[in-house]
Amino acid sequence: MKKTLLLALIISLAGLQTQAQTEGESNWKSQGKIGINFSQSQFTNWAAGGQNALNALGLFNYKLNYKKEKHIWDNSLDMALGYSHIGQAKLMKTDDRIEFNSLYGKNATEKLFYSISFSFKTQFADGFDYKVDSTTPISGFFAPAYTTLGLGLEYKPTSYLSFNFSPLTGRVTMVMDQKLADSGSFGVEKGKNIRFELGAKASVKLEKEVFKNVTIGTKLELFSDYLKNPSSIDVDWQAMINMKVNKWLNANISTHLIYDEDIMITDVDGNKGPRTQFKEVLSIGLSHSF
């Protein structure tokens, strides 16, 4: 059921692409990239020590945007899944995300739009706290999943920069793994699978080629829940530097910072509470743009 929904999402984007071809190429712009990045190390009788390691990361990004007269409709799908195999240990997940964003806007002024925005986020596979064990999942597909729907304004001063403020935004957190739901993971009440929040959301997006074949991108999202502790701001900040070596080779550096007071994390001393989450990935590999 859950994976059927993901398949439906991909098919919907394919349908939009078909519609783009039939309704007029001049109104639609599409851009996609698929790639696999990897690193490997091998040790044989190495006096300084070390363990064999293999890391692989698959990436898929697709954008389909529409613009005609006073109307815009921007859609993007970002997916990634990566694993690392070190020595004789089991596979460890290093990256995992599914994120779909869609925004419809109508001109208020030349660069300001009335907007309706939608987003969906989840992951492909089970996640584990490898410091504890690799058999008890602490996350999974639709555990959690987040959807937001907001009404507001979109300001686009340039083609590579946009600001959005949605003072009326609903956010739904879903934890469809019952064991995780029973423990109250990701802010849901114990035993319940869904949590609803009503608040305000602000976001900033930037994607620009700063040097030839070097592109930087960043997206900052802030959310405040009117119904519970509105002074607490949830933060989701992603950044990436993409360096294109040639038509096929590329190198990427990406970071992801999250702070959410409803997500409890246990530290090395056993203390449980909200904490700043941070992830950094450096990868080199093959990619194809279409």
Ranges with pLDDT <50 over ≥5 residues? none
Give the mean pLDDT.
Answer: 89
CATH class: Mainly Beta
CATH architecture: Beta Barrel
Q: What is the topology?
A:
Blueprint: H1 2-23, E1 28-41, E2 53-68, E3 71-86, E4 92-107, E5 112-122, E6 145-158, E7 161-174, H2 178-182, E8 194-211, E9 214-225, E10 233-244, E11 249-259, E12 264-266, E13 272-274, E14 277-289
Antiparallel strand pairs: 1-2, 1-14, 2-3, 3-4, 4-5, 5-6, 6-7, 7-8, 8-9, 9-10, 10-11, 11-14, 12-13
In short:
This protein is mostly beta strands and 290 residues long. Helix content is 9%, strand content 60%. It has helices at residues 2-23, 178-182, and strands spanning 28-41, 53-68, 71-86, 92-107, 112-122, 145-158, 161-174, 194-211, 214-225, 233-244, 249-259, 264-266, 272-274, 277-289.
